[in-house]
C-alpha cells in the first residue's frame, strides 16, 4: 500500500509540468491573431503553377511532334503520288509506242514526218488566222485614222467659222461684212445664215436685187428659216412689191413671233406704212 501511494505521488509530481505546458499552449493558440496557414496556400499555388507550366510544355511538345509527323506523312504521300504519276506516264508512253508500232508506224522516221506535217498544217492555219486578224486591225486603224483626221478638219473649220462670225459681229463697214460672209460661204456654201446676213448687208448698201437672189437661195435650202423670209420681205418692200412683202412678213412672224416687236422699227418697211395689212400687223 505504501508503494502505491509513492507511485501515485510521483505521477502527480511529474504530471503538473505537462498540464501547465498544455495550458500555456492553449493560451498561446488563442492569442494568435493572424492565420498560420497563409504560407502553405502560397506554396500550394506555386506548385500548381509549376504543374500547369510542365503540362503546357508537354502539350506543346506533343503538338509539335504531331505536326511534324503529319508533314512527314504528307511529304511521303506527295512523293508516292509523284512516283506513281511518273510511272503511269512511262507506262502510257510505252503503251502508245507499242500501239503505234502495231498500227503500222514502224519507225521514228514515220513519226517525225507525221509530226512535221501536222506542225506545218497548224502553223499555216495560225499564220492565216493571224493575217486575217491583222487585216481587220489595219482596216479598223485606217477607219479610225480617217475619223480622227475628219474630226480635226471639222474642228479646224468650226474654229475658222467661229472666228469669221466674231469678226463680222464687230465689223462696222457693210462692205467688210460682205467680204467676211463671202469667206464663210467659201468654207460652207450651204450656210443659209451667212446668205441671209449677207443679204441684210446688201440691203444696207442698196443692192436690193442681189439681196433678193441670196434670200431666195436660202429659202430654197430651208423654207422654215424665219429670218430669210424677213429679209425677203424687206427686199420686196424696197422694190415696192407690197403684196409679196406683206406675205413674207406674215410668214416670218408665223415662224418666229419675236419679229412682231421689230416690224415698226425696221426702216426697210417705211414704204409699207400706208398699207392696211401692214398697219394691222403693227397694231396686233
TrEMBL record:
InterPro entries reported in the protein's UniProt record: TPR-like_helical_dom_sf, TPR_rpt, Ycf3
Signal peptide limits: 1-20
Record carries keyword RNA-binding: no
Chain segments annotated as transmembrane: 89-108
Classification via SMART domains: TPR
Alphabetical keyword list: Membrane, Repeat, Signal, TPR repeat, Transmembrane, Transmembrane helix
NCBIfam families: TPR_END_plus
UniProt name for this protein: Uncharacterized protein
Species classification: Bacteria, Pseudomonadati, Bacteroidota, Bacteroidia, Marinilabiliales
